[in-house]
Write a structure and sequence with these properties.
Length: 166
């Protein structure tokens, strides 16, 4: 968690507990979205990021009562099955453009679902998802890796701040 957002009370233990809760929520909500909307099972796994160099990555910036960014990385092997399941097509029927659009939609849905779960009373605006190279830094982020039927998915959220809205 970014240090400026950490509770002022009992230092590390409460902040570490909150980080663990946020990470668990991130994993749970992502698995639910993948199962219900993309018909794909996902299980939280220990992070091993050697696959990031080949991953397809998406960034979604958000603003409002909370502001920051969400990053999604997906192994190329998992994309056709996710895209075909979402579109109701066979994997060989989905083209590269369709796969790219579905991955952007996956990032948009995941970002909205995770943020709504973390801060249900917040008011947030999501920017359009953008395909990009993975650049999300380690450190002050909530992060999880999920094993899919075919491939891996990683999600990271970096919260830059919280605003008091009128």
């Amino acid at each position: 968690m970014p240090h400026e957002l950490e509770p002022v009370t009992d230092a590390g233990q409460e902040a570490a507990s909150q980080d663990a809760d946020f990470t668990a929520t991130l994993s749970r909500v992502a698995a639910e979205v993948l199962e219900t909307m993309f018909f794909t099972e996902a299980a939280a796994v220990e992070c091993e990021h050697g696959w990031f160099s080949d991953a397809v990555a998406v960034r979604v910036d958000f603003d409002g009562s909370h502001f920051g960014e969400m990053w999604l990385a997906l192994t190329p092997a998992g994309i056709p099955s996710i895209a075909s399941a979402f579109l109701g097509l066979e994997p060989e029927e989905t083209g590269e453009e369709q796969c790219g659009q579905v991955i952007l939609e996956l990032a948009n849905i995941l970002c909205g679902a995770v943020l709504s779960s973390l801060w249900p009373e917040s008011r947030l605006l999501l920017d359009a998802p953008k395909l990009t190279a993975w650049e999300c830094p380690d450190g002050d982020v909530w992060h999880c890796c999920l094993a899919l039927d075919e491939g891996m998915l990683a999600i990271s959220i970096r919260l830059s701040g919280v605003k008091e809205l009128a």
